[in-house]
Amino acid sequence: MKELSILVNNISKNFNSQQALDDISISIKKKELFGFIGPDGAGKTTLFRILTTLLKPNNGTATVEGFDVVKDYKEIRKISGYMPGRFSLYFDLTVEENLNFYASIFKTSVEENYHLIKDVYQQIEPYKKRLARNLSGGMKQKLALSCALIHQPKVLFLDEPTTGVDAVSRKEFWEMLKSLKEKGITILVSTPYMDEAVLCDRVALMQKGKILSVDTPQNIIDSFEKPVLSIKTNRMYELIYDLRDLKNTLSAFRFGQCVHYCSILPEHDIKEITEYLKSKGHKNIEIEKIEPDIEDCFMDMM
Fold first, then answer.
1. Alpha helices in the chain, H assignment, sequence order
2. Contacts of 18 (CB under 8 A, 6+ apart)
3. What's the CA gap between 268 and 229, in Å, rounded?
4. Which among 64, 70, 228, 285 is placed 20 to 30 Å from 152, CA to CA?
5. Domain count for the chain
6. Which of 222, 254, 276 is the C-terminal boundary of a domain?
């Protein structure tokens, strides 16, 4: 048990008739970069709020670094850093003032713990006199992370930190997380972006308050044994429905500019699929075999 940072046993949470979490159990190791992957409404934020002592579960127990989320909430708040999905710092304060305020809450100072936030904060330090409301999305993200780190937390909870942020800032953010992990911090990240799953040590795929799978991203992908086709035509809207009507179809889902297609057969007959689509009025048909990704696995588990 000493190697575990987070331990969740049979946690459930409902809001009136809405079941947000349904008998969740999971364990997360110390110094692990762990991702909770799933769409809006999967239960990620509710779980994070329970683990950061902002909500009480209806059933079950959970501990953070050995402290109970209900009985020991004060201790957990001392050792946890939390970055909520919505920017929650003070718009009327400058970058510098926000950081000093959060440091004072934990009875420390920016000067004392500057080494903890240096890699993140130095990217926005030139703008320390700027009001938080005037920061770009990426800069707000870096300020929020700096505030979450200023008291040297053992566990960092990041709730959809890259939502609404440009691709460059997303990449920079994940590079910063890898650096923080090397400093010994346990990091929990929630995200709706499937492509970010592969950046985690392990992930939990979540849907409708349940955990569908917990493993390394590669192990989850390797468990998907069905062959996958990427298909494009000149009639992409109709393509999904036509493929779903095709004999032996298992699934057909839109993935960006193409449709990922699986059948119940061990091998695809590309010629047969092509002729079928032509008979349905499709032109410019492009079909290729591809390797499955984490999103294919998630859709298959739903």
1. 44-51, 73-79, 95-105, 114-121, 137-149, 167-182, 217-222, 236-245, 270-279, 294-301
2. none
3. 8
4. 70
5. 2
6. 222
Q: How far apart are alpha carbons 176 and 160 in whole angstroms? A: 15
What confidence tens digit (pLDDT) does each residue in 26-39 have? Answer: 999 999 999 999 99
Instruction: Report yes or no: 19 and 209 within 8 Å, Cβ to Cβ.
Output: yes
Domain that residue 254 falls in: 228-301
Q: For residues 45 and 89, state if they share a domain.
A: yes
Is the pLDDT confidence value at 2 over 80? no
Distance CA 232, CA 139 (A): 38
Question: Rounded to an integer, what distance in angstroms lies between the CA atom of residue 63 and that of residue 61?
Answer: 7
- What confidence score (pLDDT) does residue 93 get? 95
Counting every residue written for the chain, the total comes to: 302
| 97 vs 167: CA distance, rounded Å | 28
pLDDT for 1: 60
Both tokens assigned to 115: 């080494």
> Which residue among 187, 222, 257 closes a domain?
222
Q: Which CATH number goes with the domain that contains 293?
A: 3.30.70
Residue 119 pLDDT greater than 90, yes or no: no
Residue with more model confidence, 163 or 81 = 81
Per-residue pLDDT at 151: 92
Q: Is the separation of the CB atoms in 197 and 217 below 8 Å? A: yes
Convert the pLDDT of each residue in 68-96 to its tens digit: 999 999 999 999 999 998 888 999 999 99
CATH number of the domain within which 196 lies: 3.40.50.300
